[in-house]
Write the structure tokens for this entry.
Amino acid sequence: MMENLKYPIGKFEYPKTYSDSDIERWIDEIDRIPDQFRTLVQSLSDEKLNTPYRPDGWTARQVIHHVPDSHFQAYCRFKWVLTEEHPTIKPYHENRWAELPDSKFTPVSVSLDMLSSVHSRWVMLMRNIDREDFDKYYIHPEYNNKYALGAVCKLYAWHGKHHLAHLQIIKDI
């Protein structure tokens, strides 16, 4: 049961290969995320915004603030990969970020606006780079692994849906 609450749409799996149509689909999914968040969040009361989606999990408010934080990191990583040769990215401690005052007390409308803005720029970037650019990669120092932009595109399409599912759990409580 706890695993279903933690990963309501299942755990992410990196693709071994991906096609042009896969990338287009993932970009379309990323493009839709801000509107999907706005639609779902508008139905959440203040009480629901302060409700965790599972025991010891983040509140809806923390989830809403986390997504643009995370997706802005991904957008920056894309830009590093496109402007540097196999950059090593700087990881961040998302759980610590979620505990900071801005993640606990900022009105969610601020992060919904931020999510829309980040996605506008990110989607514009992804739709206008060459297909070969999606095979370029960054190195994640915590995992000592290479992550190609195509796989990262799938990751963040999943990530948005993953956290939308967390918010749906809270809405349905």
Notes: The beta strands are 137-140, 145-148. Residues 60-83 form the longest helix (24 residues). The domain at 19-50+58-172 is CATH 1.20.120.450 (Four Helix Bundle (Hemerythrin (Met), subunit A)). The chain is about 65% helix and 5% strand.
